[in-house]
Structures
1.
Amino acid sequence: MSDKNRLFDVRLVIGGLFVIYGLIVTAIGIFDTQAEIDKAQGVRINLWMGLAMLALGVFMLVWLKLNPIKNEPAEPLEGADREV
């Protein structure tokens, strides 16, 4: 499979974005202040959501790696070789 076809696989785009956003939100969650944690009723929501986003992004990228797009040529239609 060519890299050109793989570039437009939606799993790559979704996985890449979720990994980037997951890293950002996880970093924000690590440095949450106590006031922000109290505001979320004691839950470090940024940390947990960042880790969940990171896990989803990694899952999508692993799925792409293990099951890539198969690029098979299409069969010609019957009568397609006739000129109009």
Note: Residues 3-66 form one domain.
2.
Amino acid sequence: MSYLYGQVVPKVAVAPMMDWTDRHCRFFHRQLTRHALLYTEMVVADAVIHGERKRLLGYDPIEHPVALQLGGSDPAKLAEAVRIATDFGYDEFNLNVGCPSDRVQSGTFGACLMKTPDLVARCVEAMKEAAPAGIPVTVKCRIGVDEQDPNAALFDLSRLVSDAGTDAIWVHARKAWLEGLSPKENRDVPPLDYEIVYRLKAEYPSLFIGINGGIQDLIQAREHLARVDGAMLGRAAYQNPGLLADADRLIYGETIEMPCMEDVVETMADYVDRHVAAGGRANQVTRHMVGLFHGVAGARQWRQILSTMAVKPGANGDVLRDALRAITDARQNAA
């Protein structure tokens, strides 16, 4: 394992994001940073138990360190999902206590669990018992939901899951409004409260506390790391993935050069070729790369080529190679 909880080790993570952080996205992000912790999309425990496990849980070994986020509210099912997923070699098991989507609400898990912290603690305890020794079990939560007082909700949940043995708490520093706001609005409308997360860390100095929500770049992440143990980037890392290329230097203190973007694109083009040869579609990979050259000359042409060409029948890694030539040409014309 290349990272540890229980120690004050500065770290960044890419947040679990439904329909975004699939295995292709994670393979791509790993080309940009060797150390940042990557998360799967949330996988429901019932799906792990009854579904196509290789499709749901499989990933490329290059993705390590990689954490599996699980959704559910039944301790026994979550424990069984952990036992099943153990064979896949994940570096962490995380319980989703923060997603406000309608699908999650209908299953009474995700952010709904903020209302039943004792149940969350039982889920964590069951997951800990099922996980192999040394593999962390963590929680990702909100500061509260609906009319809850975050000063009570967050600290009550943290006390109970800490007693249950959680190895870390990642806090999205906003409330979730389960009634009245859409999942998209829940990512922007409720105000951020970073200070409450800082106070949580002060109350639990020996427990890893990570912060999430509204972090736009690695400079902001590093500022948070002066107060907490981890900083988690979500949409910023997805929409402008190039920022991850500086994570190993800025956050982890490495002295190696940043990844060469041309090399990253060539690696991903070869990956697309393999994926297509195995029966996949090019756009299943390239959709995660649209924002790679954010703010760079030729970025518009890059986006246009990926958006229009990768969806065509027979598209392969050449779509990325052609788009890269647009970047190279724009750079030469600007020189």
Note: The longest strand covers residues 137-145.
